[in-house]
Design a protein that fits this description.
single chain; alpha/beta; Gyrase A, domain 2; Four Helix Bundle (Hemerythrin (Met), subunit A); Rossmann fold; seven-stranded mixed sheet; six-stranded mixed sheet; flat
């Protein structure tokens, strides 16, 4: 924590600008060794949040490395709450690496993955859920996912969790004061009041949990597999959803032999859509390997689109594939409804589909795709309308902490009904308080923190 760290904070490659970021108490001292301003500066007194023009130079030879702009920002009004210097150079691999090398030679240490954000957390600028939102913003794949992450960074979830913890802490204070100082004139809290307040807190915890699946879906997305026998229009459907010719489409059965993956934005949900090889018995070794991969993907799918052919009706292969899908969520798509004389029997399809969703589409003419999109989103979110700015739970870690808190609060509720002593109730109250604190990082160990920040990129 006392080292001054440095890293390249922009993607490696060619670009207009590249940034080397330095953070720590020796940032300005290091800058003075590698930077020659166009006008002499006293870096100890230079004004914060200012930009300075000049050149990065090698310390020994005085050779110019690059023409740069340097941003100077003094703590605590910075991302890490420490002194920060950002060297804005030309965005090429060589100048960036050369400048970073000079900065490290001047006394900085190479930053670990996520170390800038970790310092912002440890220095109290943000809590852990806000720190996690930083990486979610970087990795957001849809506008809705970005909106969820930005609101979490702004503290929408943190504020709710902190309010719940304060309520529980107030109850604990009353209970412990009454237990420790029974002779003193301390305001007592009744079992009924404890029960009422715990029920209210638990209701709020469960409201947060109710949005956890939606929050995680907006952040992580879903896996949607297109399945069916050969030549039913799976690749045409993929192309129609992507609005580009991504997969080869022919009238020859078995054209798609390998899995094709793409990510699409479906009403704000990132959908990893997988076009698979047609499932059928085959003697072709390559095609057989593709069919085996299809079976593997079906087992991992969050949602399956089973495509059947309106020209052939329901076949033995269709029935076998539906049996293979089993209890997984599936939408049956009757494709090629644009043909003049489809042979499919709608009543037969409805009877075969049972309570599964069944839609009619034409992938070639893009008929029914809007209804398909609405149906997918409705099934994934289970009909829940969730506002991105309400403080959604987006991670399994958050969800598990809330679930443990809810269980402890339920035990308090049971204890109140059974007339337990207040000091016994305080055990579960404190456990719930600590579980909620894991979300904001107030009650987490160093090993867990290291694992969380290890998923960040270097330079952030």
């Amino acid at each position: 924590m006392f080292d001054t760290i440095a890293a390249i904070s922009t993607p490696l490659g060619e670009g207009g600008i590249g940034i080397v970021r330095i953070s720590g108490e020796k940032s300005l001292e290091i800058l003075e060794k590698v930077f020659r301003a166009s006008r002499p500066k006293n870096w100890r007194t230079v004004q914060s949040h200012t930009i300075h023009y000049g050149h990065v130079v090698e310390q020994k030879s005085g050779e110019v490395v690059d023409e740069v702009l340097v941003s100077v920002m003094r703590g605590p009004r910075t991302f890490t709450a420490e002194d920060v210097v950002e060297i804005n150079c030309h965005g090429g691999i060589v100048p960036l690496q050369k400048i970073l090398e000079l900065v490290l030679q001047a006394g900085a240490r190479l930053a670990e993955p996520g170390e800038y954000t970790k310092r912002a957390f440890l220095n109290g600028r943000i809590d852990l859920s806000q720190a996690e939102a930083v990486i979610d913003i970087i990795r957001a794949r849809t506008d809705q996912g970005l909106k969820v992450a930005v609101n979490q960074l702004a503290g929408a979830l943190s504020a709710k969790v902190k309010n719940l913890r304060e309520e529980l802490l107030g109850l604990l204070a009353f209970i412990e004061a009454g237990v420790d100082f029974p002779e003193e004139d301390v305001q007592q809290v009744s079992l009924k009041e404890i029960g009422d307040r715990v029920i209210e807190v638990n209701q709020q915890v469960k409201r947060l949990l109710s949005g956890a699946d939606a929050g995680r879906i907006y952040r992580e997305g879903i896996r949607m597999v297109i399945a069916g026998k050969p030549n039913v229009g799976k690749s045409s459907l993929l192309n129609a959803l992507l609005r580009e010719r991504r997969a080869i489409v022919t009238d020859i059965p078995g054209t798609t032999r390998d899995v094709i993956e793409e990510v699409i934005n479906l009403r704000g949900i990132p959908v990893r859509i997988i076009d698979t090889a047609g499932i059928r018995d085959t003697t072709d070794i390559v095609e057989r390997l593709g069919v085996e991969k299809t079976r593997e993907w079906l087992a991992q799918a969050d949602l399956v689109l089973l495509v059947i052919d309106a020209l052939t009706g329901i076949t033995r292969e269709d029935k076998e594939i539906l049996d293979l899908i089993g209890e997984q969520r599936v939408i049956i798509l009757v494709n090629k409804i644009d043909v003049e004389k489809p042979r499919i029997d709608k009543e037969e399809v409805m009877e075969w589909a049972g309570d599964r969703v069944c839609l009619e589409i034409s992938a070639r003419e893009e008929i029914g795709l809007e209804e398909l999109a609405d149906t997918v989103v409705g099934m994934v979110l289970e009909g829940k309308v969730v506002a991105a700015d309400q403080g959604l739970v987006t991670r399994v870690r958050h969800q598990e902490s809330l679930q443990r808190a809810a269980r402890h609060l339920e035990q308090v509720e049971e204890g109140v009904l059974l007339g337990f002593a207040q000091d016994l109730l305080s055990i579960d109250l404190k456990a719930a308080w600590e579980a909620l604190g894991e979300i904001t990082g107030d009650t987490l160990g160093e090993d867990v923190l290291d694992r969380i920040f290890a998923e960040f990129c270097i330079g952030k």
